[in-house]
TrEMBL record:
Top-level taxon of the source organism: Bacteria
Subcellular location(s) per record: Membrane
An example molecular function term from Gene Ontology annotations: hexuronate transmembrane transporter activity
Protein's UniProt name: MFS transporter
Species of origin: Hymenobacter rubripertinctus
Membrane topology: Multi-pass membrane protein
Domain Major facilitator superfamily (MFS) profile: 25-441
A single Gene Ontology CC term: membrane
Listed transmembrane segments: 20-38, 90-109, 179-201, 245-265, 285-306, 318-336, 342-363, 375-397, 417-437
InterPro entries given in the database record: MFS (IPR011701), MFS_dom (IPR020846), MFS_Na/Anion_cotransporter (IPR050382), MFS_trans_sf (IPR036259)
Keywords: Membrane, Transmembrane, Transmembrane helix
């Protein structure tokens, strides 16, 4: 690492500023996450068009959604391992290249089976985003700043979901649904060029001062601090720690709720309130604008508690418990929607914001509890658990329940049940995380295991 005097930080000590380059890295990861979610959200907005072309029912759409989730779950496990092996620069670039090609590939599909294959390809390749993003954050931010940095880049998932309803229906209406997949998929290549030019790990960054490097790596083992590729850790070793299961259960119970918002919110607005095409854009955008606020706010809360002298693990746990309670009012979405649709949109938006606040913190627990060389692998294991939870929710609840209630003309009952599931999931997840890792102790890994 260079120890030149050319600082990359704004005026002030490294201990009081993240530094301009860290902000740049955070912005790049935010951009990648935006594109990642934009690509996966396109199909939910094109569902009305595709239903007409391919004669889909609720079960067909659920099958396509399940294909994505199965592939995403498998991909998360492999992607985390691969990124820990290749490092963030190459691993992130490879994932983005492949998912962009898969997103564009949807435009060339001509059957329902083809869409299942295309969604599976997108799922397995998009799985690399979060392991790479969390590892990047762990490499460039000290522990106390990671939740805020995670909240900022994770808000890209909301921005992607905001951009989608504001653009995809208009593209579909003006030049056809196929171009919606092509145009959104091509954005990944823009990010790829920027990433390859800009990114480097702290240990090899030519303009990083020693004081800034020491600030970034203050929580790490001096022997491996700042290195991109470090000795690998086996899955069996990671699965022997209670901390791994705290993260796994937290993701298993709460990730499916976000999948539900992402894939079913446009359908809810269509079936419950009769919104179609571009009419859906504004309420969906409002939900995800609130989510963006929640994502950044979720990272800000524990940072303030830590600044006021609270231990990091306690600040994280208290923040997550408060966030879990903020989701619960979604159980009243149906009743509020009977008064006014926008009340339902508001309470769903608050719950989605709380999910993103939760996400900013639960992702950060991985780097709180594990050294950098295991972060992507543990993130992948938890991501796979979250995907499996989503598969079970789709297969056992959404597909059977939604198809049944739709067949008898009482789809509102299915949404009522789902909103109760959403409301209770986070409190249960928090209780299990508390049971498995009450103090979130950081583990030490033996070399070469």
């Amino acid at each position: 690492m260079s120890q030149t005097a050319s600082a990359i930080s704004p005026p002030g000590s490294a201990a009081t500023t993240m530094g301009r380059y860290r902000w740049t890295i955070c912005s790049l990861v935010f951009f990648a996450t935006t594109v990642n979610y934009l690509d996966r959200a396109v199909i939910s907005l094109l569902k009305p068009y595709l239903e007409k072309v391919f004669n889909w029912n609720a079960g067909d759409y659920a099958d396509i959604e399940i294909a994505f989730k199965v592939a995403y779950s498998i991909g998360m496990l492999g992607a985390g391992r691969l990124i820990d092996k290749l490092g963030t620069k190459i691993g992130y670039a490879l994932s983005t290249l492949l998912w962009s090609l898969a997103a564009i590939g949807h435009a060339f599909v001509s059957s329902t089976l083809g869409f299942s294959v295309a969604r599976a390809a997108l799922g397995i390749t998009e799985a690399g985003n979060f392991p790479a993003a969390i590892k990047t954050t762990a490499e460039w931010f000290p522990q106390k700043e990671r939740a805020l940095a995670t909240g900022i880049f994770n808000s890209g998932s909301n921005v992607g979901a905001i951009i989608a309803p504001l653009t995809v229906p208009f593209i579909a209406e003006s030049i056809g649904w196929k171009w919606a997949f092509v145009i959104t998929g091509a954005l990944g290549f823009v990010w790829l060029a920027l990433w390859m030019v800009v990114y480097e790990v702290p240990a090899r960054h030519a303009r990083l001062t020693k004081s800034e490097f020491d600030y970034i790596t203050q929580d790490e083992d001096p022997a491996t601090a700042g290195l991109e590729v470090q000795p690998k850790v086996s899955w069996f070793k990671l699965l022997s720690y209670r901390q791994t299961y705290a993260f796994v259960f937290g993701k298993f119970l709460t990730d499916p709720i976000w999948w539900f918002y992402l894939f079913w919110l446009p359908d809810f607005l269509n079936k419950q309130y009769g919104l179609t095409g571009t009419q859906i854009a504004l309420p969906v955008a409002v939900v995800y604008i609130l989510s963006s606020i929640g994502s950044v706010g979720g990272g800000w809360i524990p940072l303030q508690l830590i600044k006021n002298g609270m231990l990091p693990f306690r600040a994280r746990k208290i923040s997550m418990l408060l966030i879990a309670f903020c989701v619960f009012p979604i159980v009243f979405a149906q009743q509020l929607g009977q008064i006014n649709m926008w009340l339902a949109v508001l309470v769903i938006g608050i719950a989605a914001a709380a999910h993103q606040a939760w996400s900013a913190n639960i992702f950060t627990t991985v780097s709180d509890m594990f050294p950098n060389r295991a972060v992507a692998s543990v993130t992948g294991i938890g991501g796979m658990a979250g995907g499996l939870g989503g598969i079970l929710l789709s297969a056992l609840v959404q597909k059977r329940m939604f198809v049944y209630y739709e067949s008898i003309g009482q789809l509102d009952h299915a949404y009522y049940i789902m909103f109760w599931i959403c409301g209770g999931a986070y409190l249960l997840a928090w209780a299990l995380m508390q049971a498995f890792a009450p103090r979130m102790e950081k583990i030490r890994l033996d070399e070469g295991v």
